[in-house]
Write a structure and sequence with these properties.
The chain is mainly α and 201 residues long. The chain has one domain. The protein starts with a helix and ends in a 7-residue tail after the last helix. Its main location: membrane. One of its GO terms (cellular component) is plasma membrane.
């Protein structure tokens, strides 16, 4: 995958960075831990400007987040509750748990949205409750840009400063990101297997 990312960034430049970061948020196994350090390394070589690399990465991330937000907003909390009543096992949520999730998200969304963008897998997932529970779009966009800006800037700066040693970023962060996504998948499977509808009012 690294070679494919390298070829796309080199052939498409900033547009390639934007596209890859969009896809990373839509399809998490595409690693930002490779995309942004690679682009930062390109900036160190004079191929790109670091500020524009960060801007392209942030724009792509925001676009991906807004994709899931819009989809979840279209679903809405009422439809989600109907799905929970019919197919709760597969979304691993009951109507009661959705109520609890909504209460938790509404209390903590101010830090949950930006913080989630620092954690692989969660930066995709956090857009779903934001949309389902109708978090105001301007606030969601600002909080997403805040968290995503920190993450993309840190990765691009690492690639820029490390120069031709940028692969060291992926050597450590890549496996960690894969492990986190794997744990999230295993948690989902565990919840599917052990799901019990909770219909308490």
């Amino acid at each position: 995958m690294t070679d494919w990312i390298t070829d796309l960034v080199e052939s498409m430049g900033y547009i390639g960075i934007l596209l890859l970061m969009f896809l990373e948020n839509v399809f998490p196994p595409i690693p930002s831990e490779v995309i942004m350090p690679l682009a930062g390394f390109g900036a160190a070589e004079g191929k790109f400007r670091l500020a524009l690399v960060i801007a392209a990465g942030l724009t792509g991330t925001l676009g991906g987040a807004l994709f899931w937000y819009a989809l979840a907003r279209r679903i809405g909390d009422q439809r989600l509750r109907r799905w929970a009543d019919r197919h709760g096992r597969w979304i691993t949520l009951s109507s009661v748990e959705i109520d609890r999730l909504e209460q938790w998200f509404c209390r903590h969304r101010g830090w949950a949205v930006p913080l989630a963008h620092l954690i692989p897998g969660l930066r995709t997932l956090i857009s779903i409750p934001a949309g389902v529970f109708a978090m105001p779009l301007p606030r969601f966009a600002v909080l997403t840009a805040l968290g995503a800006g920190v993450w993309t800037s840190a990765l691009a700066a690492a690639g820029y400063l490390l120069g031709d040693r940028f692969e060291g970023v992926d050597r450590y962060l890549g496996p960690v990101s894969t492990a986190i996504i794997g744990v999230l998948f295993l948690v989902y499977i565990w919840r599917v297997v052990h799901f019990r509808p909770d219909r308490r009012a």
